Amino acid sequence: MKSFKANEAVGDRLSLYFADARPYLHGLRRVPQVDRLIDAESFSRFLEALRVPLRHAEESACANPWTTSCLQNDEVRNCAVLADLWDRRKHGRQAQAFLAGFFAQAGSHLPDDDELANGYTVQTEHCLNGAITDRVDITIETQSSVIGVEVKIFASERDNQLADYRTAIAARARLMGREKHEVVFLSPYRSRDEAIFVPHITWRKLADIAEQANPSTHSGWLISQFGQHCRTLGI
User: Fold this and answer.
1) CA-based torsion, 88, 89, 92, 95: positive or negative
2) pLDDT tens per residue, range 15-42
3) Are strands 180-186 and 200-201 parallel, antiparallel or unpaired?
4) How far apart (Å, rounded) are the C-alpha atoms in residues 33 and 109?
5) How far apart are CA 82 and CA 3, in angstroms?
6) pLDDT, tens digit (0-9, with 9 covering 90-100), for 93-102
7) Using an 8 Å Cβ cutoff, are 59 and 68 in contact?
């Protein structure tokens, strides 16, 4: 290759470079030129027609608060939002109906709307019985039941995790004098532990339940929007 002085014109330098590079360039073809010019008025009408659908797409993407808050697939943050939306002290009747629908989908032996109406509490990252090894993602306690919800999005469960949580939930129920106890698995997939059966709900099933909320109320709108977000978290 030739050497160039720093003060040589860029055009001259490029000409010399491509002259030297010519043996190494193969298959270059001249691109055919289009003779016809684009009609400016037609192109302007085309751009104007795009304005409304593009605005609708932008508004739709920005309308969901759980999308704009970048919850994405973070298990801890999604658990915190879900527990909050189930809390009747914060979201009233809409929260209770959302939780009752979740339990109804999971199994008939779980708390129904009447049981929830007598009062319940929701906690996240709850260390049952004071042991950190028994920390369940979400726990719901009524006057007669203790229910644990183990949440997975894309992570896999550890060995015997649901069995251990079931034992911990049963111990908590005995300690609190509750008659009923259960663990529900919220995950895109069923438990791989074939030695134990726990009620299972997918994120899309949860989405169906959430989208039954009344969007004309603020709490109902938040719940229904969370349902749309849940459809991005697996099957």
Assistant:
1) negative
2) 887 778 777 766 556 666 666 677 888 8
3) parallel
4) 74
5) 67
6) 999 999 999 9
7) no
For residues 91 and 222, is the Cβ–Cβ distance under 8 A?
yes
Tokens, residue 147: 């229910």
- Token representation of residue 23: 């043996």
Place of tokens 């929260």: 95
The model scores a pTM over 0.70:
yes
Radius of gyration of the chain (CA): 30
Residue ranges per structural domain of the chain? 2-26+35-60, 66-231
What is the pLDDT at residue 42? 85
State the sign of the Cα–Cα–Cα–Cα dihedral 50, 52, 53, 55.
positive
DSSP assignment of 93-145, as one string? Answer: HHHHHHHHHHHHHH-TTS--HHHHHT-EEEEEEEEGGG-GGGEEEEEEEESSE
